[in-house]
Amino acid sequence: MFALVQDGSITKYLSGNRGITLGDIQYPKQIFTLWTKSEREAIGIYEVVWDNTNKKDEGWYINTNVSYAFGSGKVTASYGSATAKAHADTTYTNQDNTDGLIPSGKSVGDVKTEGLKTKKIRDVKSQAAVILQDTDWYVVRKADAGTAVPSAITTHRAAVRTKCAEMETAITNAADTPALETLYTYVNTADEGDPVVMERPLGKFPVLGS
Prior knowledge:
This protein is an alpha+beta fold. It has helices spanning 37-42, 94-98, 116-133, 136-145, 151-173, 177-184, and strands at 2-6, 9-14, 20-22, 25-27, 45-51, 61-62, 67-71, 74-78, 83-84, 90-91, 111-113, 187-188, 198-199. Strand 7 and strand 8 (74-78) form a beta hairpin.
């Protein structure tokens, strides 16, 4: 992405996929690929430099719109301060009721907008259900034919449920969105000099046979 700077101000943003007319001169699109940086800047065209300092993971935060500025001989695109997504549910209030904003079937105190905690807990429950499906047939066979479920399978299924409960507790106890994000952030937990071991505080579900 490029910007046209005239008299010290950005006057146009350019994609670089078509030519541009400046004054009486028509420049082909090749100036964006074949010209040097200095050659382009001599006619007021600057490549946009991105500053992602304030940009955060959109799974956890709402980033601001990008703003552009020209200074110190360059055009910079940057973000403002990101806003953390709500980690807890919001509920319908008495004011919502007064304003007629509560839909049919809902009432004061019901969930209005789900927070990240609710969504993440639903995710781990779903993951646990998918894992357990792989061994459900043992349970069905026992119910149908009386064949005992192997102890390794029983142990694994119990471990999956236990880990799911642990994850739900950790998510519930997260004080805010940054704390919730930390649970999912992988870090190297190996001692210095040892092979890298990437783990996250939330942990992971057990794997059958491992």
